[in-house]
Amino acid sequence: RDWDDDVEEADINAVDDTDGVDPEAEYAAWKLRELKRIRRERQAIEEAEAQLAEIERRRNLTEAERE
Amino acid sequence: RQHLIATGQTGEVKTATVEDVRNRLRWLARKRREDAKEEVIDVDARLEMARE
Amino acid sequence: MAKTEGYHRADEKALTDDRGYRGKLIRGQNPALLFEKGVRDRIIDSYYWKEQCFGLNEATLCDRAADLKYIGGTSGIMGKPTPFLCLAFKLLQLVPSRDIILEYLNFRDDVEENDDDVKAERHENGDDGAALNGTGIPDLNAQGKLGEFKYLRCLAAFYIRLAWEPVEIYKTLEPLLTDYRKIKRRTKDGFTLTYVDQFIDDLLTKDRMCATSLWKLRPRQDLEDLDLLEPRESPIADEIEDMDEGEADDVQVVSP
Question: Which of residues 152-181 of C touch A (CB under 8 A)?
């Protein structure tokens, strides 16, 4: 077929997408990815909270200074 | 050509319903299973032939 | 509901007619504009588009999607669009109903009906959820239980990210973060291995995927604060709790 002429068999076969070859390893690899995602989310929340706290702190400072 | 019939040569193609889609996918899944089975049988037959 | 329209244009003329587009809109604009002009032009010029995508409807598109071997945007110095990208463009032309997109995403072949042969065979191959549970691996939706055609599933996910609203995007795509099936991804100069869950995560967090800039998705946290979303429950949340109590922060996470 014309449209996939440029796909080299060797290239596409260099990557194997067969599932279930080693279920334990595939699951373990997923768990690691999932863990990183969760950590990333938590970190983002912590950073946002820290930022809010900092804004709050500065506001309090200026108010205190005004008095 | 198949697509000319499918489009009735009017440049239009009928909208499919969710049932059409489900049936199509069932048919494709079945076809894929049968192809996989045939491949196994094919390999078995070839092994058999090689043994003989 | 389905009876109101009835027909699609077989070709892209209506879609690419800048002034005369009268089809369905996505967020107030012609869906084709979700792809960049250069990419659109290259899709419409491609053999795959002309020979394999002409005259497809929501059902016959499945034939092509079932044959997909990889995801990806464009490849080579010419920036040739992948079949995946061409089919995504076709979806932007068809704007399938929500039900149809969900069918692509979560299709499950209920072979139980009368196909005892197949059922028995699946069991032997350890292809069955119960059999895998025996090995202690939780039955997530990765064992081909949902979204049987994994590349079709990715295609639907990509479309959802482009075409749906933020709350729906999170609600519909996040469950796929447990689908750890392998997928091939075509890059500029070759192929790499990735996973359905990774692709979903990329769609939710990156601003560019598959040669397409993804419009800015409102952060999950904002939607939680507005009570539009519940916090996400990871299936391994409990395990993480245990780990945190035990060994604190010894896993280094590099932020992207």
Answer: 177-178, 180-181
